[in-house]
Amino acid sequence: MPQIGWLEILSVVIIAILVLGPKEFPIALKKIGSYIGKLKNTVSNFQREVTSVTNEVDLNEEIVSKKNKIKNDLDKNG
Predict the structure, then answer these.
(1) Model-level pTM?
(2) Residue spans per domain, the chain
(3) What's residue 63's pLDDT?
(4) Rg (the chain; Cα; Å)
(5) Burial letters for 1-33: b for 16+ Cβ neighbours within 10 Å, e otherwise?
(6) pLDDT tens for each residue of the chain, 78 residues long
(7) 28 and 20 in contact (C-beta within 8 Å)?
(8) How far apart are CA 30 and CA 7, in angstroms?
């Protein structure tokens, strides 16, 4: 994965200021930050949902496994 250094970031900032202008640049940064925050929040919620579903599946598999073990124990003893 390519590395981005300070020189590249500075170049992008200077070009953005030249293109957008000094008055519009802070507004654009605020919007970009807002979009990144929303994206991070969405990804976090998605990860939480996946973890929740995975935990439920693991729990259900454990319940089935315990039931089968109890049934086998009862069959052996009874």
Answers:
(1) 0.58
(2) 9-77
(3) 87
(4) 27
(5) eeeeeeeeeeeeeeeeeeeeeeeeeeeeeeeee
(6) 678 899 999 999 999 999 999 999 999 999 999 999 999 999 999 999 999 888 888 888 888 888 888 888 788 876
(7) yes
(8) 22
Question: Do 28 and 16 touch, CB atoms closer than 8 A?
Answer: yes
* Contact by Cβ (8 Å): 21, 13: no
CB contact set of 17 (below 8 Å; sequence gap of 6+): 25
Distance from C-alpha of 53 to C-alpha of 59, rounded to nearest angstrom: 10
Place of tokens 């640049």: 25
Tokens (6 digits) for 8: 């590249």
Residue with tokens 């953005």: 16
